[in-house]
Amino acid sequence: MPLPPAPSKRAAMLPPEAFDAPARSSHKATRKTEAPAADEALVAERPQVLDDLTARGLGVGGDLQEEYGEVDTETLVDEEPAAPAAKGRKKEVTVPAPLPKKKKASGPKKMFVLDTNVLMHDPMSLFRFDEHDIFLPMVVLEELDGHKKGTTEVARNARQASRSLDALAGTQGADIAHGLRLDTTGHKEAGGCLFFQTMPLSPSGLPMGLPPGKADNQILSVVQALQEKHAPMQVVLVSKDINMRVKARALGLVTEDYKNDKTLDDLDLMYSGSLALPPDFWAKHGKTVESWQQGVHTFYRISGPIVPALFINQFVYFEAPGEPSLYARVIEIRGKTAVLKTLKDYGHLKNAVWGVTTRNREQNFAMNLLMDPEVDFVTLTGTAGTGKTLMALAAGLTQVLDERRYTEIIMTRATVSVGEDIGFLPGTEEEKMGPWMGALDDNLEVLGKTDGGAGEWGRAATNELIRSKIKIKSMNFMRGRTFLNKYVILDEAQNLTPKQMKTLVTRAGPGSKIICMGNLAQIDTPYLTEGSSGLTFAVDKFKGWPHSGHITLARGERSRLADFASEVL
């Protein structure tokens, strides 16, 4: 490389710290060994470094950030000092500026072939595959067209998926032959391209026993042909159909379930709402604890290693033999400190709620949430017989009839049958929901017997009053409604999808409270799992919000027979 022209005047000497500022070790070694060399050696060497950096920064030769660290290419390219010699020196000693870090790819780029059921399950699945490409066989578009009619959830999803495909194909400069960029409609998280099948694809090795006319087999043939055509790129079939995935594995194809709809992969990771304090809690935190009394409650301000693991409205408890127990709720977290508030004991007869007292620790936690007017959204999970419906009804009746905090109780549930459907039901909306509300009748029978001194006539009048304050509504007619000052109970919420859960929770108006209850081991909705249930979705999204709370009820209190059956059956 020719030397630059000689400088017009002598340049100022560089400060000693400038020699250690830039990056490459080879140049540092050169400077150390040739420290007595003349200025001309520096001038001769550094323009070559500049050209190398400039070319790499502009994408001509390799990855600038990988070789030189994070370097500000604008400083290297755009600044133009007057003297060429000074130019070489200035570029070398410029302090590197950090570049915005891009999201690194988790591995080599893949191509995902989507089955029709994935698009009908989640119409936004097109944009959930990060930087990877998506391929849609022609038979998938045919099946989408066949399912778009009707008012079901599947039909709505099929129509939304079709609209997304139309928007991608209709963007300016879209070229189906070379792929449609998935980020052109505002979904910046999708960095890949969408490809449609535009020509027949015939694989070489499909077994003769697969009927070629079946849609699933046509998709499998497309996947195998793409794997042969695009090797070594990995082609992955994504399907919600278990049999489809089994057939694909039998053919030696890579296949996966669609996992983006799952809130949790393992139910053991689900937020339980309570936390046991370690046995050495007071030894580690006792010296820094501040406490004060306010009314009947005691407050503790703690700091220490346990604070980052806490959430607002999470319950903490300390139980150790020979030491006083502590049951409290986290009401404030600021930096490295948290404030705990002791609980009201609803297990004592003087604090009974509509004649009901709590029988274990988790039930007491739940009743504190149900009776707190500052908590607008409560989720309760637990096995059969843990008292979810009874406590929710008792708290609702107390706050509606005694405290007049809410005007009425609205109760609804997902109408999913355990067995065969018994057909259409006669009567009004409330009468049609009657057979589904057996749990309500059973619990009202228990609550109606709590007042033993009123006599038969008094109990009948109480039951009539209770019935007048409870409205049974169908979930099908909730769209567009707004509940004002209502106490809303969503029973069997484990059978709701996340979209249905959002529809119901957003019905809450000013002064309303929503209680979601369910047993995640009793899901009856097809294609819904514990990880993708709307109840799991709500628990995970609302944890830590100051006006919501969750508790997992651990012990059944129905009967010894029900407890034993829950464990062994």
Automatic annotation (TrEMBL):
Looking at the UniProt entry, the stretches that span the membrane are: none
Q: Does the keyword ATP-binding apply?
A: yes
Is the keyword ATP-binding assigned to this protein?
A: yes
Q: Which UniProt keywords apply?
A: ATP-binding, Nucleotide-binding
> Domain PIN spans what residues?
110-246
Q: Which residues form a coiled coil?
A: none
Q: Where is this region: Disordered?
A: 1-41, 59-94
Q: This protein's superkingdom?
A: Bacteria
Its family? In the N-terminal section; belongs to the PINc/VapC protein family.
Protein name per UniProt: PhoH family protein
**Species for this entry:** Ramlibacter alkalitolerans
